[in-house]
Amino acid sequence: MKFVVDQQVEDIEMPENLKLNTFLQEFHSDCPHPECNFGYYGFAFGQSPFPVPKLIQEALIKNADKGAYAAVPGIPELRNAISKYNKHYFGLDVAPERIYVGPGTKELIFNLLEILHGTVILPTPAWLGYLPQIRFLKKNYHMLPTRANKKISPNDLRKLALRLQDRQKILILNNPNNPTGLLYDKLELEEITDVCREQNILVISDEIYALTTYDFSKFVSMAKIYPEGTFVTNGLSKSHAAGGYRLGYVIFPQHTSDFRSQFKKILATEYTAVSTPIQHAAVAGFEISKDIDEYFIVTRNIHQIMGEYTYHKLTSIDGVKATKPDATFYLLADFNSFALDLQKAKITTSQKLSESLIIHPYHTAIVGGDSLVLERTDFSARIAYVDYDGAKVYEKYLKNKPKSLSEKTEFVKKNAPKVVAGLDMLVDFFLNLRKDNLSELETKQSSMVSPS
Ligand SMILES: Cc1ncc(COP(=O)(O)O)c(C=O)c1O
Fold first, then answer.
1. Does 449 score more than 80 pLDDT?
2. Which of 2, 173, 210, 365 has its CA 20 to 30 A from that of 327?
3. Total domains in the fold of the chain
């Protein structure tokens, strides 16, 4: 029997997690070379390598007996803990009633897009999670390409908003940003807010990477700057390395009690509530404690060390630019100065670049421009620097914290050999590409001058 798939599903873009798995399975067939049996150098997956904090694991075990359904917006203990957590880390005064819990921020962002009327403004490059949702919901949307600094230009935002007919618009702000690793400062957020107020733009501020900010004193939540128009989403996935727990939350803007009742209908219809034991475990993750605080500090310091090594290695390639990350475990590398060399090697799209890097002899997985909502011919790529044993590296860091640049370099070399070797592969790929094209050119030139 053949089943007919609903057109709406056929039409949506493949979400990032499926796209990546399919790609890696398709292109990483077993290599016949015996030295390649290690798999591949993984710069593609956006997952924290660290173990889930012990406190959360223990709380989950202790609450395994909680078999009853939870209240739709979340258990009161958790909403209270999240409220205090937001006060402590982000200086936000949000009553627990303004916080709803959901199975991951991805789902909550989808729910917000379901409930909010209006055209979506999606700055690019972007995390590929948003676009399939927007398409699935058949929402009007416009890309807002960023300029050289890879951040939203308030002027461009204003120009775009002036062209849109909708009385309400929705800006997706991802701060700190996946894929660039960049952080918006207070002034930048204020300038965006001015335009939002003027043009009636609501903001979904995806702040899932907030606590990975390397210099945490610099992080400012959009809810502080634009409290009446910002929906903040955050959760356990990145800061607590617990993506598999599927727990996120949304903070609603001020004065939204009617709106929240409507939102509750959506959650109750779609998933009733988040798993009760997971909610109890999450309380331990959001309660302020020395252990969790130390976990944030250690993990973000390690991300920073890996990020700086990655940034310096990639930008040592002549012509390669990269964002210098302030947070997250990603940076955006720009290989467009190699466009001609790539085209000569018949690598005409970012997808082809990803394919050429995954096959022998490079075995290196990256996320290409087409998966970052960029043009197919944009040779930018997201590099995630997380291919190491997080539990081991965490312990090593605690025993001996590297301080100087040379100690940090040594730390990466000792503890993240696959990051180091994978970056060497990337360097080799681009140097070889240039060399091959140069020698081809020289052969052509010498055959032109030699008498035939
Ligand atoms: C920018 C961004 N937002 C949201 C998510 C999804 O988070 P969650 O696990 O809470 O659904 C991710 C995961 O990769 C992400 O990178």
1. no
2. 365
3. 2
